[in-house]
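[step 3/7] fold_predict: job queued, chain A
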Amino acid sequence: MIFDLTMVRILDNTQDKKVIDAIKDLIKKPDMKQLSFAVGYFYLNGWSLIKDDFPENPNNNFMNILIGRELDISTFKEIKKGYRLRLKTNLLDDLSEIEEDIIDKIQELYYLIKNEIINLKIYIESKLHSKLYLFIDRPEEF
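[step 4/7] structure written:
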């Protein structure tokens, strides 16, 4: 298989190469089919940076995230609740336990997890420090 390396961009967080800007731009692409990230940590404030850039009707399994075990307890609890919601039918009961100031962003994350649009896995074997942001616009070529 041949990959078009002219489309490869290496990003860091220097002045003109902000990773978050590239992520937001790529998520919004109309032909984006799938995202796969491997990151050392995942917090709700990071989610709030990209949630508004998601497509209106993303495909199932649109986003897959492998995260390290470095996450705060509130994020862990929210991820756990999101997965429970895949099995439950009453979203409002679970949302009643959440503080008012984060209900909107959590509700969006719950919906995406419950409907199998986002998948999260936690790597617990050791510290995960790697970062990978893979954007796939032609998954049929893999």
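[step 5/7] annotate
Residues 95 and 103 are 7 Å apart (CA to CA).
The helical segments are 19-27, 44-50, 73-87, 91-95, 103-114.
exit 0
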